[in-house]
Specification:
CATH superfamily of the largest domain: NAD(P)-binding Rossmann-like Domain
Bound molecules: nicotinamide-adenine-dinucleotide
Number of strands: 8
Radius of gyration: 23 Å
Order of helices and strands: HHEHEHHEEHEHEEHEHHHHH
Helix content: 40-55%
Number of helices: 13
Shape: globular
Strand order of the largest sheet: 3-2-1-4-5-6-7-8
């Protein structure tokens, strides 16, 4: 059953505001001449005072689709990068992908040859985690697998400087849970980039329950220096964007299954009526219907709310192997 959002009632708001006022009044009455210490004193208790407020060197784990884009975004913004993967072939391919992407920007006259050379000079590739030792931030963006990510973040935790921050680019794994396997849970955070990273302005910055304000501030600052527009998100399944996007796609399958409109008209409706650049069904074909179904199943399990049940038509199409563009047939035929 769908539940309306729980709005905070004006009564409750004013009661809590009243409580705050009462607290302040009580402090004033107890110590009429005392000057209250700055609020930051309360927030800084767990924070290291030598915290790197300006991150200059970023380590990135994995040299796949996402890491190439993150490395490029960092390097063109003047941030040094150490890109580490498990194989030499992967890092060589990763660097070649960045080089090709910069060539396309030169052709579009967005950067010069000199900009490209400067950006590439900032990227160091390696297959050894030892080369990450000088990084103030390491972004884990390896294959999406919980056990693998736990292994990687434990390894990073054991070798990085105590003040270094670890971030994960995971799409679906709990940041709070990953942070908890390290000894620096306050210096652990999610940085969810969007594909293709050099083109997409958004970074979801995900705060685990333990993430400190200083960690959030350092990562927020870096994200804006990369030219991104970050949003801050509390750790929760799907974070913000996928939490809204994938159920919308699922609803489009219900609308299609009920014969309310054709696939073409559903997509045209959402493009023309909501200014979406691509219709939800065409987007499902791009993402992969199996991925959409898996995400809905995670939400159903994690939230225990039937509003996240997958559309039977989506399940049928996945069972038939009609997964979208990657199989040549999904909602549309390719
Ligand atoms: N592809 C997307 O659209 C997208 C978008 C947002 C977030 N993400 C997330 O980003 C992460 C990476 O996704 P991707 O699409 O780039 O994956 P990918 O499969 O393209 O690349 C993963 C890389 O990780 C490497 N790797 C595996 N184990 C490693 C280890 N122990 N140490 C170092 N490297 C290792 C692999 O060799 C591979 O090169 C995932 O967590 C994914 O959920 C992906």
């Amino acid at each position: 059953m769908r539940r309306p959002p729980q709005a905070r009632s004006p009564e409750r708001q004013s009661a809590s505001d009243q409580a705050k006022r009462t607290d302040a009044t009580e402090i004033d009455q107890r110590q009429p001449n005392a000057t209250l210490p700055p609020l930051t004193l309360f927030f800084d208790l767990t924070d290291n005072k030598d915290f790197p407020m300006s991150i200059q060197t970023v380590g990135i784990i994995g040299a796949g689709t996402m890491v190439n884009g993150i490395a490029q975004a960092c390097a063109v913004s003047g941030v040094n990068v150490v890109m580490v993967d498990i194989s030499d072939a992967a890092v060589a391919k990763g660097l070649a992908t960045v080089s090709g992407s910069l060539d396309r920007l030169i052709k579009k006259e967005k950067i010069t040859e000199a900009d490209k050379a400067a950006a590439l000079s900032r990227i160091k590739t390696s297959t050894s985690y030892d080369d990450l030792k000088g990084a103030q931030l390491v972004i884990e963006a390896a294959t999406e697998n919980y056990d693998l990510k736990v292994k990687i973040v434990k390894q990073l935790d054991g070798m990085l400087a105590p003040e270094a921050i670890i971030a994960s680019n995971t799409s679906s794994i709990s940041i709070t849970k990953l942070a908890a396997v390290t000894t620096r849970a306050d210096r652990f955070i999610g940085m969810h980039f969007f594909n293709p990273v050099p083109m997409m302005a958004l970074v979801e910055i995900i705060r685990g329950l333990q993430t400190s304000d200083a960690t959030h501030a350092a990562v927020h600052d870096l994200s804006t220096r990369l030219g991104k527009s970050p949003i801050t998100v509390k750790n929760a399944p799907g974070f913000v964007v996928n939490r809204i996007l994938v159920p919308m796609i699922n609803e489009a399958f219900f609308v299609l299954a009920e014969g309310v409109a054709t696939a073409e008209d559903i997509d045209a409706g959402m493009k023309l009526g909501c200014n979406q650049p691509i219709g939800p069904l065409a987007l499902a074909d791009m993402i992969g219907l199996d991925v959409c179904l898996a995400v809905m199943d995670v939400y159903l399990q994690e939230f225990g709310d039937s509003k996240y049940r997958a559309c039977p038509l989506l399940k049928e199409m996945v069972a038939a192997g009609q997964l979208g563009r990657k199989t040549g047939k999904g909602v549309y035929t390719y």
